[in-house]
Description:
Keywords: Membrane, Transmembrane, Transmembrane helix. The chain crosses the membrane at residues 27-44, 50-68, 75-92, 112-131. It contains six helices and no strands. The protein has one domain (3-149). Helix content is 66%, strand content 0%. The protein starts with a helix and ends with a helix. The chain has helices spanning 3-13, 24-42, 46-70, 79-91, 108-133, 147-153.
Amino acid sequence: MTLSESVRTCLTQKYASFSGRASRSEYWWFMGAYLFFGMGVGLLGKAAQLIFVLAVICPLVAVGARRLQDTGRPGALIFVPLALALLFAWLAPGAPAQGTPGVQPVTQGEAIGALAMMLIQMLVALIYLWLLTRPGDDRANAYGPPPETVAQEA
């Protein structure tokens, strides 16, 4: 699958499709396009970046779920890193500016907790990087036929 095919598939045909399977090329081409355009949109400001992320979060999660399903794993696992990130963002201590009246600086315990959360996130990211780079099943699995077979039939 080429870059343009991947982007077209993820943004139109399978925008919110969590069923079926996605090949490595479909996932990684779309992820590359997301990162490339995300950096460009980021230069336009935070509002533009927020709109961009909200527009592509659904196809991004959907293609990730289909990619995991291609390797025989449940697509719902794609929500684990997202849930951890939200949990850690909620639990993380604030970082007040120096000298802000009435705000206590972060304690050593809070700093250690934040470091532990960061290390857990890094470990989870590495695990998911490994999972998402694994070859898909050659044959049909519980989530359908291999993506190449589906593309050839279409």
